[in-house]
């Protein structure tokens, strides 16, 4: 973690989606800072393995339950100083598989967790997403940009779930004076992502380690701004501690094409994998980069881990899981040189974006 993390003003926090990729890192960091944590997850996309190392730690409690269910607030004992609502299928593979549950997380789940925060007088923070900007016509994306979103497209279950949850939080601030904030996250990646979950980094890393082709959508010119999970966690907790009620972008500032990400993964993994161009998903954003001026000026937050260093750490994590050791030594160069050559344009498949 970076030095930007604030001293924690909380005694007990509840983290929904706490057994997921990002939620588990939040649980871990809060426990390390001496904050007691209730981790809540229904395991629709999370895993107990992500928080197994926290079981038995002082202050850590795990609740396997659905935050969208009737009576969910009554099953969370509290009292809490901080409510982090991060429960929601976030990868394309998950929200396309669970469309109604995704919409429920943004509506019923958000309403239930706002009720918990109101009951305990806790600070509430909603995990939103760069997807609220859709395929943006403004670049980079500032918090006051309303977005360019298809409300009935294949990605709409996720996009509109988050847009509605933002509206619900904003309404609670206006109607009830809730101490509630919103953090819009851009392309977070790192250890504990699920292999092949439909997001670019884990798909590319797992394919490269296996020596398989890396599927790049379209011509790969679409851009992403990656943010390593440690930096994202720091930004989230700074927003939580700030009492800001405005949406705040948290994301990387280096804009990189998807093709360049794939090529760099192959190089850092010492792989002989090739790039395979495939059909581009509907409504896939062409450019994505946050304007993080507000986070920098309000919170003093800037990402500290360069994206290539974060990729290296992520490769080491997946390699250890696959081989029990860091990525294997690079094989001899092919007759055509060390760099993977793109080829083909096969039938459509589910792809990272």
From TrEMBL:
The keyword Transmembrane applies. The keyword Glycoprotein applies. GO terms for cellular component: cytoplasm. Residues 343-353 have a biased composition (Pro residues). Its cofactor is NAD(+). It holds the Pfam family Epimerase. Its main location: Golgi. It is found in: Golgi apparatus membrane; Golgi apparatus, Golgi stack membrane. One of its GO terms (molecular function) is UDP-glucuronate decarboxylase activity. Residues 322-353 are annotated as: Disordered. It is a single-pass type II membrane protein. Residues 14-251 form the NAD-dependent epimerase/dehydratase domain. GO terms for biological process: D-xylose metabolic process; UDP-D-xylose biosynthetic process. Signal peptide: none annotated. InterPro entries: Epimerase_deHydtase, NAD(P)-bd_dom_sf, UXS-like. Keywords: Decarboxylase, Glycoprotein, Golgi apparatus, Lyase, Membrane, NAD, Signal-anchor, Transmembrane, Transmembrane helix. PANTHER family: UDP-GLUCURONIC ACID DECARBOXYLASE 1, UDP-GLUCURONIC ACID DECARBOXYLASE-RELATED. This is NAD-dependent epimerase/dehydratase family protein. It comes from Streptomyces bauhiniae.
